[in-house]
Amino acid sequence: MNISRRISRSQPLATTAMHGRADAMKARGESVIDFSIAISHFPAPQAVLDSVRQALQQATLPYTAVGGDASVRARLAHHVAAAHRIPATPAEILITNGAKQALYQALYTMADPGDAVIIFKPYWPAYVATCKLLELEPLLVDLPAQITDEILDSLPPARILIINNPHNPTGKVLSEAEVARIAAWLKRRGARVIVDESYDQLLFEGRHTSLAARADWRELGVVTLYSVSQSHAMMGWRAGFAVAPAPLVTAMETLQGPITAAAPMLTQLALAAAMESGQPAAMLADYRHRRDLVLDLVHGLPWLSMARPASGAYLWADISPLTRDTIGFCEQLLSQRGVALMPGEALGAPGHIRIGYIGGDLATLRRGVQAIIDFGNQLYQAA
Questions:
Q1: Which CATH architecture describes the domain 5-43+280-382?
Q2: Partner of 374 at 20 to 30 A CA spacing, among 33, 158, 289, 368?
């Protein structure tokens, strides 16, 4: 069967492929600890469950406008104004089936085939994969410890910059000064920006600043993406939304209409309830404890270094003193020790591994991390 040129040169996301392999092994009865992605052991917030129960008592659940139910969009606009100081109207809110759909539609409507898109690495693989599907040119640049004017001015010409703040997988949170520098650079270059803030509620330290909180966010052409998958332990709900200038939201609706139409009404209500439920304090405390536990376990290893992330559901480790072939490392670890990790190559950074540390109980977390340590020590001593 003939397959289109666009899709035939594309590959499945490495992140979902590794998780799929771990699931297949479990289905065969094999023992696997899956750190390849982050799946929270917490339930969705009670407010979300209550909102869905109430909705199911209604006689019908109607179709909504493509961009979302008017009352839900108003609730989300109120939320981003109160929580993030983003002065958005309901017409500047677009509800989607997760952040990936919002990303695809934003790129589709903001750029044409051949346009360049700057992406910092390590990156969330969907950024690069979506650019390639849309025949855009991803320009990969190392994420610096601090974003300075000199670094920004050294970036290649591009139509769009993608920012992940807080960042997956490093956990970096941009300072207010860095956000201001990015805004000034956008004005100088005439570029536009997509800011993925899906992890904005998972802050362990510091303060999050939204680029769209600026008074000139519409002039800058800022598109901000949100998801409740990680921030509120709602991985399977596929609920997200975008905040963008109204003309761009209209364009994104034009694309969304023939693809999926509106997100399900139940999903929309769950999304609004999640965003209104506030920062998940108990979940954050648990994640912080797990983060610190892993950092203590790996401290002092000669072949692994791991920074303390300020945010997020992942830990990012440099194992380049041991190997830069982290695909091989992860393949051997999975087959020999039954632990699944995400190799850095999948995120544009060989020599690194990503650990999703928020699933299962603490005993399983300890056992999985100890298996990684023992396996790495064995390789290091044999080298």
A1: Alpha-Beta Complex (3.90)
A2: 289
